[in-house]
TrEMBL record:
Cofactor: Zn(2+)
UniProt-annotated binding residues for ATP: 253
Keywords recorded for this protein, A-Z: Aminoacyl-tRNA synthetase, ATP-binding, Ligase, Metal-binding, Nucleotide-binding, Protein biosynthesis, Zinc
Protein name per UniProt: Glutamyl-Q tRNA(Asp) synthetase
Gene3D superfamilies in the record: HUPs (3.40.50.620)
GO MF annotation terms: ligase activity
Top-level taxon in the UniProt lineage: Bacteria
Keyword Cytoplasm tagged: no
Residues noted as binding L-glutamate in the record, renumbered to the chain: 5-9, 41, 194, 212
EC number: 6.1.1.-
């Protein structure tokens, strides 16, 4: 059975870009006769704002996007994430890292590797242990736990490349070890990294289809690698076109995206639907009529 989800972070209210992702994921679930869930991704507690989760749920309800189950909060699920990390560690697929961000930058700078705008430096493997050995060096403090992407990729095809099909973007691939390196599973402050939390939650909630913004496409190979390392099923993926600000950058809370004006929810949804290349309903259509029309259109675009 189809199970989809929308997973906002409660760092502020929904904006135009997040409504596009919410509408697309809701339409995909309704098109396939499935369930649509909302998961509040609040693991990064320092960035979460009091009352933001309730505000987001209210915004979704105003737009007629009601989840089929009560929302799940990641901040209550630490035990599941610890179990997954323990499982990876027991199989030598995760190890403690003592490197600071500055140390990583210095090592890569010495190699001539410079971080480009909007990207992250591949981890140079400084703390990567020999096979079947994962101890913190004396005098050093664990700052994070990382996935050993080299060992994890051995289960892939001969070239260790993650390959997947995106329902909108087509066939994609990435060598995670070369492009990203050993990525973080648990941060130095003890907070759980997005990659591990989302993989564990998608599996625990039986998510079969992930529909989200195109800015998260690059996360997909890391998540597939984790899914395989944890013997979990890989969902189907569809990444929607980004909403960009006037300067061409992704519209986000970090660059000052304005909260949705929901005095007229249908007007806000019309803009989101237009971005998804869906046709406007008749001038006499109400919210329910519009959503019903877009479900039919979505079924033709993404059967």
């Amino acid at each position: 059975m189809y199970v989809g989800r929308f997973a906002p972070s409660p760092t502020g209210p929904l904006h135009a870009g997040s409504l596009v992702a919410a509408l697309a994921s809701w339409l995909d679930a309704r098109t396939h006769g499935g369930r649509w869930l909302v998961r509040i991704e609040d693991t990064d507690t320092p960035r979460c704002l009091p009352g933001a989760a309730e505000l987001i749920l209210g915004q979704l309800a105003a737009c007629g996007l009601q989840p089929d189950e009560p929302p799940v909060f990641q901040s209550t699920r630490g035990t599941l994430y610890q179990q997954a990390l323990d499982q990876l560690s027991a199989r030598h697929l995760a190890y403690p890292c003592t490197c600071s961000r500055r140390e990583i930058e210095q090592v890569q700078a010495a190699r001539g590797v410079v971080r480009t705008r909007g990207s992250e430096l591949p981890y140079p493997g400084t703390c990567r242990p020999p096979l079947h050995h994962a101890e913190v060096p004396r005098g050093r403090t664990t700052k994070a736990w990382r996935l050993h992407s080299g060992l994890a990729s051995y289960a892939l095809e001969e070239d260790h490349v993650v390959r997947w099909h995106d329902r909108r973007l087509g066939d994609l691939q990435q060598n995670v070890e070369a492009a990203v390196g050993d990525f973080i599973l648990q941060r130095a402050d003890g907070l759980w990294a997005y990659q591990l939390a989302v993989v564990v939650d998608d599996a625990d909630q039986n998510i079969t289809h992930v529909v989200r913004g195109e800015d998260l496409t690059d996360n997909t190979p890391r998540q597939i690698l984790l899914q395989q390392a944890l013997a979990l099923k890989t969902p189907s993926y569809l990444h929607t076109p980004l909403v960009v600000a006037s300067d061409g950058e992704k519209l986000s809370k970090q660059n000052g995206a304005q909260a949705l004006d929901l005095r007229d929810p249908l007007h806000a949804l019309l803009k989101a639907a237009e971005h998804l290349a869906l046709n406007p309903p008749s001038s006499k259509a109400n919210l329910t009529d519009a959503l019903s029309q877009w479900v039919r259109e979505w079924a033709r675009k993404y059967p």
